[in-house]
Amino acid sequence: MSLSALNYPPLVALSGLGLGASLPAIEQITAQTPWAALRLANLLCYGINVISVQRPGRLDSQAAEGGDLAPRTGKTLVAPSGWAFAIWGPIFLGELVGATAPFFLPETEPIVELLRKVSGPFISAQLFQSLWCAAFRPKYNEKGYMFVSTGMLGATAYSLSKAHAAFAANPQLYSKLQYGIFFFPMALHFGWTTAATLVNLNGSVAMQKGASSTLIKYVGHASVLLASMIGVYVAKVRDAPVYAGVIAWALSAVADGMKKRLAAADDDADKKKKKSKEDETVGVGLDGAATQYMLSRIGAIVNGLAAAFVAGRLSVGNGSGIKLDLTP
């Protein structure tokens, strides 16, 4: 039996619910698991996620091929330009280093206590993202299960938030080098999956049959405003400039996507005037696009400034270098 045949939407949804209900148990188990076994569990779950991501056939291709999720011609107003997804490179590479480096750490190292706290949420995040890879596929749209993928990606961000909170609250347990090896990739991952959850939500709304341009517009605007506020809030409360920086990156990509869409509409203005009333659905992706461009640019600037301010304050407070993601 093929993996695609096993990818049954209700089963995947139930698996996600079961995993969510198991989060406290996973954290308790990882706190008591022998160090050697815990290191293997982290690496194994990371590997499952990498393999899942590499499986072809997800809806990501629509963004490149001009579907509902495309920045230039799509319906959703939260459609980042393709360059934004390059952030997955440092995330996956960084987490590979972070998952293998513990094999060179003796259990007596002070950071091991913190790595135990982070391992439960990290494992959950890898598994939730694997389930997202299963759910973000055409069959889920055809059968009315598109929001399953939104839930899986949101659960990934939630799990990473718990990991982020753990290492942000315990800076005394690691050096700057150890932060870069173990926690910087998680901070990137947390920020990006926060933004990606809102991208997924808007794509799911836009792909619903009969979704009006008004609904798509207001969900898009609300998502950008929410991302902007969350980025600044987390940066302030957790002293987390990396998180705000990633949100600024994502919002810049959304603004660039809307800029491309508006430019394409201007180039095609004469043709649109000649279109019959039957073809006016082409304009769905333009309703609110100019406002979305403005909101995204403002959000990106605000989060960029927040990241710079927090990083600068931490740099001054520590006397030398920037110590990232500390508690207030």
Write a concise keyword list for the protein shown above.
328 residues, mainly alpha, 73% helix
Count every beta strand, where a strand is a DSSP E run of 2 or more residues. Answer: 0
Task: State the low-pLDDT regions, or none.
Answer: 276-282, 319-328
Instruction: Provide the succession of SSEs.
Output: HHHHHHHHHHHHHH
Q: Calculate the mean pLDDT score and round it.
A: 90
The general outline is globular
Helix content: over 70%
What structural class do helix, strand and pairing data support? mainly alpha
Continuous helix count: 14
Radius of gyration: 21 Å
| % residues in beta strands | under 5%
How far the N terminus sits from the C terminus, by CA atoms, comes to: 53 Å
- Describe the biggest sheet? none
Describe the fold and architecture.
This protein is mainly α and 328 residues long. Helix content is 73%, strand content 0%.
What would you say about this model in short?
The protein is mainly α.
Topology, element by element:
Blueprint (H helix, E strand, L loop, with lengths): L2 H4 L2 H13 L1 H10 L2 H20 L5 H6 L22 H13 L10 H25 L2 H5 L3 H23 L7 H31 L6 H26 L2 H27 L1 H6 L14 H30 L10
